[in-house]
Amino acid sequence: GKRNSGFRQCFFGSQKHCKLTKLCPAMGYTFRLAARNDIGTSGYSQEVVCYTLGNIPQMPSAPRLVRAGVTWVTLQWNKPEGCSPEEVITYTLEIQEDENDNLFHPKYTGEDLTCTVKNLKRSTQYKFRVSQSLWKEDEFGEMQSCSLLLLSQKGRSNKFKVTKRWLSPVFLLQCSESLPVRTLSIAPGQCRPPRVLGRPKHKEVHLEWGEKYSPFPDVPASESGCEVSEYSVEMTEPEDVASEVYHGPQLQCTVGSLLPGTVYRFRVRALNDGGYGPYSDVSEITTAAGPPGQCKAPCISFTPDGCVLVSWESPESSGADISEYRLEWGEDEESLELIYHGTDTGFEMRDLLPAAQYCCRLQAVNQAGAGPYSELVLCQTPATAPDPVSTLCVLEEETLNAYPDSPSVCLVLNWEEPCNNGSEILAYNIDLGDTSITVGNTTTHVIKDLLPETTYRIRIQAINEIGAGPFSQFIKAKTRPLPPLPPRLECAAAGPQSLKLKWGDSNAKTHAADDMVYTLQLEDRNKR
């Protein structure tokens, strides 16, 4: 049986020896023996204590960091595998405080698997390792002292004297791998408020800030152990929307994409291993007034009387009032000309060509300068009624021969097609005074059923889908007189091979008044 436990039978037989297995290492067992025959069982012999040999402990694993503070760290380690619950393992946590010194010094010895090491320096790196030793219980339970030989990884030995109740000397002590641990830093102090470097611009400001204040009143910032790794600059917009606009190690930055003439609030804080420090006091900075922003594209509308109305909206404020607007107009971008400048937000134009392409753009100006032009706006004026016919005439006699009607009762008009102003010409109106004639899309027309030898005043106008254009200028045209009546033909004398004919009136006055030309035609019996 083991100490403090009852005896139990472990062998029964006729042999005078036995082998016991599955015993605990480094453990004391008490044995007693009794003999038995046919008469009965003898009494037990004197008790004998025997000890099993101890196992060499496995190499302990390196300690783990549970939590680190500014002046303390908490470490944890595991119990070696293969150890029985009855085995008592003592752990020693050692520390290396100086990187230039390879010596480790004990900080804790005990059976716990966790230890908090205190009174350390802030922002300092240490190395820790764990050693473990296997002990056994003493037979008599008395206080005993023993010398322990601690073997380090580099073969150095250290001797310690340990007094412990119920324990006997260690079998072997081994050290784990070392664990580097760094204590935390104290967060930086409050930075100085940022200020503007140079003069604010209308869209950006250049900020700078000084070194941080030391968090220790009696210790300079350079010796506080709180080296700053970066700075963070926060900007608050007029709508109270805060955002980080810079983070980095520099002591200055440029913040862009700002609105002109606008108040912004800035503050800065520093970061180190201990975290972020408090924000600095707020600095309010106003950007300079800038040129106006880009105007929106002008709006173009057409009035019933043929005018073009251009209107626009004011651009966003740039910290200064608009002093004037500039409107450029032309048939294309290369021909743009300034047609208006002033403070109004609209302008009316007249006398533009109908059905013509135009373009325009707008620019706003204030005391800081001129803003960018708006987008180019294209437009086409609406179609209108045709222009007046510029050329109207009556065809001469040679042309009249192509028409079967007598020139005494008809007139052949000819004209040039006017500009249709964006809509195809559909017809023409011919005005003869009391009579109006509508003809199709042609440039020639024969006016019939006129009076002979009569003067007419004629004008013409073109018509399209929009309406009728203005009339042309009047022209005067006169029909020819009627032809004379057929003369009386007589045979005055007849010969064998000749005939003497005469016609007309022998009155001399008639011959003087009428400049006539006679045509004599002869036909034979064969109708030739």
Shape: elongated
The CATH superfamily of the domain at 64-182 bears the name Immunoglobulins
Poorly predicted parts = 137-172, 213-224, 508-513
Which CATH top level class of the domain at 64-182 fits? Mainly Beta
Rg, Cα atoms, Å: 63 Å
Number of helices: 2
* CATH architecture term of the domain at 64-182: Sandwich
Distance between the termini: 173 Å
Helix-strand makeup class: mainly beta
Largest sheet: 5 strands, antiparallel
InterPro entries: E3_ligase_FN3/SPRY (IPR050617), FN3_dom (IPR003961), FN3_sf (IPR036116), Ig-like_fold (IPR013783)
Keywords: Membrane, Repeat, Transmembrane, Transmembrane helix
Pfam family, one: fn3
Main location: membrane
